[in-house]
């Protein structure tokens, strides 16, 4: 890290590494055969805390037994507050946290640089989302491979539409949970036993749009908040989404400047940039210290494996009953004397 004067500041033991139980990994109960199977889920956690002003941000990177990954942000700390007059209610732009104490409404934004490199690359990016089929006997007449499956007399048919995002401008995207939108990175040169290209998908969680005007100083200095997803070909010197010096540049540095070239993304060494936005409408329960607010984004394998990578996790009784070196019977001095 660095001090306010730019001097190096070494932090000892700043990263935590541990493993923890996380509930059910998979379960199946069959009433016909009266049998059941369940496996516990454990995850490896790599975490650190960033204290920024009055806020504390806890970053947890989770690695799961089904080969999925998750980056989670937990927001805590102390709200930045201001005073209001007796009987004054700032409702709208803020909320009362205590008598004459205003908690301004605000947003937090985090951007994660994800150097994908799926199966050693090269990689190609797709947007995947639900697409409804027009009701009626004809269904999708416009589809080049239309067949009997395209008929939709019941009106409930839909499919997962895949759109290749071939350039930086096409990859600038917002979440759409109503369509189940996610983004998938594939390696077109590597396939599984089903002939499908290996890949990982980026699954967004809770998120918000930036509630600022396009010409605002915030948008100029932190242009990456305009979109939830950006994608670029890997460049060693492109590391920070707001540029090297966000407090000094006049605006437009970082992702907005890099993507002006509209570079090719097909069969490239791809970097995804995911912007996670948090809307904080304050409340009395946030004062005097904020209980953690949790937000995350996930990476999941798609056709990367030939079956569930969690299928070989042993049942809990097999784990608990195994002989663990160094944990057998220990004869005490009292026991030895009795013998």
Report on this structure.
With 339 residues, the chain is mostly beta strands. It folds into two domains: 146 residues, no CATH class; 164 residues, Beta-galactosidase, Chain A, domain 5. Helix content is 7%, strand content 40%. The chain is built from five helices and 15 strands. A nine-stranded antiparallel beta sheet has the order 1-2-3-4-15-12-11-9-10. Strands 5-7-6 form a three-stranded antiparallel beta sheet, with no helix packed on it. It is globular and about 70 Å long. The chain starts with 15 loop residues before the first strand and ends with a helix. The C terminus is likely disordered.
Strand arrangement across the biggest beta sheet:
1-2-3-4-15-12-11-9-10
Enumerate how many helices there are, as a single number.
5
**Percent helix:** under 10%
- Average per-residue pLDDT, rounded, comes to 90
Overall shape: globular
Give me the secondary-structure category.
mainly beta
Biggest sheet layout: 9 strands, antiparallel
Strand content: 35-45%
Helix-strand string: EEEEEEEEEEHEEHEHEEHH
CATH topology of the largest domain: Beta-galactosidase, Chain A, domain 5
Distance between the termini: 61 Å
- List how many beta strands DSSP finds: 15
Residue windows where pLDDT falls under 50 for at least 5 positions:
326-339
CATH hierarchy class name of the largest domain: Mainly Beta
What radius of gyration results from the CA coordinates?
26 Å
What number of structural domains do the residues give?
2
- The CATH H-level homologous superfamily of the largest domain: Copper amine oxidase, catalytic domain
Q: So, CATH architecture of the largest domain?
A: Distorted Sandwich
């Amino acid at each position: 890290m660095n001090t306010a004067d730019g001097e190096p500041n070494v932090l000892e033991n700043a990263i935590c590494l541990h493993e923890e139980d996380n509930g059910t990994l998979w379960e199946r109960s069959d009433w016909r055969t009266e049998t059941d199977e369940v496996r516990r889920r454990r995850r490896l956690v790599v975490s650190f805390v960033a204290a920024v002003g009055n806020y504390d941000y806890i970053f947890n990177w989770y690695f799961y037994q089904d080969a999925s990954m998750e980056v989670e942000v937990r927001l805590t700390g102390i709200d930045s507050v201001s005073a209001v007059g007796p009987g004054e209610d700032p409702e709208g732009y803020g909320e009362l946290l205590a008598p004459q104490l205003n908690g301004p409404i605000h947003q937090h934004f985090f951007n994660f640089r994800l150097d994908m490199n799926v199966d050693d690359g090269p990689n190609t990016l797709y947007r995947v989302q639900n697409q409804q089929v027009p009701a009626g006997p004809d269904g999708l007449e416009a589809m080049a491979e239309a067949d009997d499956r395209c008929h939709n007399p019941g009106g409930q048919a839909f499919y997962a539409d895949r759109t290749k995002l071939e350039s930086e401008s096409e990859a600038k995207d917002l979440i759409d949970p109503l369509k189940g939108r996610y983004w998938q990175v594939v390696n077109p040169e590597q396939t599984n036993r089903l002939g499908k290209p290996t890949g990982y998908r980026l699954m967004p969680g809770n998120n918000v749009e930036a509630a600022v005007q396009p010409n605002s100083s915030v948008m100029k200095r932190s242009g990456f908040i305009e979109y939830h997803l950006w994608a670029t070909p890997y460049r060693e010197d492109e590391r920070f989404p707001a540029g090297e010096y966000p407090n000094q540049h006049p605006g437009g540095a970082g992702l907005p400047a890099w993507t002006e070239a509209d570079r090719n993304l097909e069969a490239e060494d791809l970097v995804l940039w995911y912007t996670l936005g948090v809307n904080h409408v304050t409340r009395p329960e946030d004062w005097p210290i904020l209980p953690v607010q949790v937000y995350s984004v996930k990476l999941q394998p798609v056709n990367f494996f030939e079956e569930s990578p969690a299928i070989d996790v042993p049942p809990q009784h097999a784990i608990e009953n195994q002989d663990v070196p160094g944990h057998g019977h220990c004869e005490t001095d009292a026991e030895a004397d009795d013998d």
